[in-house]
Amino acid sequence: MVPSSVLRTPRLLLQVLLEKKVTVLQATPTLLLSLGPQRVKESLLAHGSWLKVLALGGEVFPKVPVSHCIGRGCAAKIFNVYGLTEVSCWASVWEYVPEETSASHEVEWMPIGKALSYTEIRVLRKTGEEVEDGEEGEIHVGGEQRMCLVDDGRGSSMEGQTLNSLKATGDLGLVKEGHIYCLGRLDDQMKRNGQKISLREIEIVCSCFSYINQCVVVPDSSNRLVVCMCLCDKDVTVDDVWKDLRNSLAPWKIPDEVVFIDSVPFNTHGKIEMPALLSLVTKLRHSSRHTQTLQDFFKEIWIRTLGYEDVREDDQFVVCGGNSLTALQINVAVEEFLECEIPEFLDMLLHKPYSEIVQILRKYQLARKNSEFSGDVNKRTKTKHSSHPQLEHNTNLEEMKNNDTDEFYNHQSAIKSTMNGKQKDNTNKKKSILLAAVSRRGVQLRESESSQNLSSHTYLLRWKFNLGKCIDSSPLLVKRSCGDMFVFVGSHSHKFVCLDAVSGVEKWSCILGDRVESSPAVSRDGLFVYVGCYDYHLYCLRVEDGSVAWKYKTRGEVKSSPVVDQDTGCVVFGSHDKHLHCVCVDGEAKWVLQVSSGSIFSSPCISGALVIVATLDGVVCGVDKVSGRIRWRVTLNKPVFSSPIIYSEGVVFGTVEGLVLSYTLSGTPMWKFKTGGSIFSSPFVLKLSDSLQVIGIGSHDGCVYFFTHQGELMAKYCAASPVYATPFMYDKGDGVFGAVVCETLGRCCVLRVAGVGKQEEGTTQRTGVEVMWKHEFPGELFASPILYEKRLWIGCRDDFLYCFDAL
Length: 807
What we know:
Blueprint: H1 4-7, H2 10-19, E1 24-27, H3 29-34, H4 37-41, E2 53-56, H5 63-67, E3 77-84, E4 89-96, E5 114-115, E6 120-124, E7 136-142, E8 166-176, E9 179-185, E10 189-192, E11 195-198, H6 199-207, E12 212-219, E13 225-231, H7 238-248, E14 257-260, H8 274-291, H9 294-306, H10 324-338, H11 345-351, H12 354-369, H13 380-384, H14 390-393, E15 395-396, H15 404-407, E16 416-417, E17 434-439, E18 442-445, E19 459-466, E20 476-480, E21 485-490, E22 495-500, E23 506-511, E24 521-522, E25 528-532, E26 537-542, E27 548-553, E28 563-564, E29 571-574, E30 579-583, E31 589-594, E32 605-607, E33 610-614, E34 619-624, E35 630-635, E36 645-647, E37 650-654, E38 659-663, E39 669-674, E40 684-689, E41 692-698, E42 703-708, E43 713-718, E44 728-733, E45 736-742, E46 747-754, E47 768-776, E48 786-788, E49 791-795, E50 800-806
Helix pairs in contact: 9-10, 10-11
């Protein structure tokens, strides 16, 4: 026993241990490592040391760092002890022999060892059953002769305590080949970018870097991962660390920040004192902000995120390898550095060159310093604690006077052109009626409606078609009365194809001016197909032969998928020129509207006389489809990638903050639901009955959520990776529905979701999600699937469009 003042001073503590010739030392790994691995190696765990037994417990045993503390000829025995205060402290022990690995060659952790006398140790699922070999669960420890009551020093907290045979430890355990491994605290496991990660796992990887004495990974108040490192090599730079982190960890496990500290603060029990550590991080971060310029900060985070050694003025974030997830991480870091919200930053980052982004950020910084950001720059503290911040910005523009010259885009820049001369005359051709159009929005039928009652548990690959580069465009299926059934899809190869939906045989293909990410739409008569392109154009192609009837030019990439007004035949779509375009069937602009200062990535939707659109600077608008005037506006201050969709009560969509939001068609908030990750997926609406609609949407927390039209959560499916694509849903009858879910890492699952069916008297109907079929694809899945007449079409980033038959 030593005074706390000695315990908190590593050099003094080591001196006491050596002077007193301590033979048995019980400590936490944090306390041991705080003494300095090299100093311990040369004294306490060196040849001839008085120390005979070193028992490490209270934390996960850090095998690699401990091995760096052991000197040549060390005779001390080292043990990993595990236990719980309520079970008389230690419950198991395992001797660590440096020359040996763990009990299982597949596990990098240290077993907790054999249970002591009268002690029982089990790893249980949440349901209370024991896990199988290879599974994880919570470690429970007990034994009728080992239980204790624990008070707070006054005895008052012992009231109500019971001597249960097993106590939950709060630790995550793994059972492997008869051994139990402690993987860390359950609260050390977190979801990040849709993936489950372990903070301790990251620490173990970092501890293998030769220049590190000790490291701790902690989430800060904004849930950003910070790795705190004590260095034994003072010549190591932060750039060196970032390079090793990128080479050693999966992208979603890489921390957001690296901080060098002199020592890890710990409490009187020898464990890490997290509040003190986070306070230290905040202090160092604050100090860094006062010494680092905005230009240096942004250059550092750009290089760190993309893995480049330098940056050029004309570098584009996406071209350099950035994506929506890494863009979100940079967005959070920049807003914290500037201490203000920048709604349009994500849009800028994805589409503007490096030099222009820096210039715009500099304007925000100057505006903040001069306190001139009442409208464009929002203090983070104003909206951080708002229960429904959207209410604060809801504006009805019908009462405002609009300036036509300011609000409307110059029609002269929206040009109609043709590639093959005059439009072909189709009047002499045999008229074919459009019977069905199937897209990621669902099935639009003009024939008698029928449910897709698929009872099959198996899907067999019928064909696949190579488009040359990855497919992010979701396919469109068109069925006509003449018997034709075609599927249309585009690719990053600039290729746009029309295939026989059943055989996969190419009917025609054409090469457009750039990449195609937009999902196509079909005209009311089924004779034309519309698709957006990165070359700033919306193309109108003839279904018959793929020739270009007309193309309409905007001033930015067209990633938004067009939607066809079934009343007028007009096509409405957004562009990265920050405008919403309404184009007539002849390719002439009916109206063009700048909604906000943000680009439009998502697709608009139409309900009656209203077009609803969302932007990348977080503005959602209701626009009159005849005049093109804004009727109402909601400002969210966070980007919206999710496409709004109409349902019985109004409109619903998701946000990058992880919110599912619903508004009435007049812009009034109705309900919201918070998921665990950013939402890029668009919602799907399925009508099950006259009184019930189901809304399905994916999230980057790795789940798909199913809601009633009243916003009540019906069911949730937990996937193996984030869900970017829209789930395709279909009615199976009796209140049961199916859902096709594509996960980003390449797995597709067909689900059966029950819980709203007929309920017999005296029985309880339970909601349940069952996986009926799954398939692993060789590439990532970002395009949304479609299903029709017992066939499934899926586009993959391995360059292929796949078709499966239900057996």
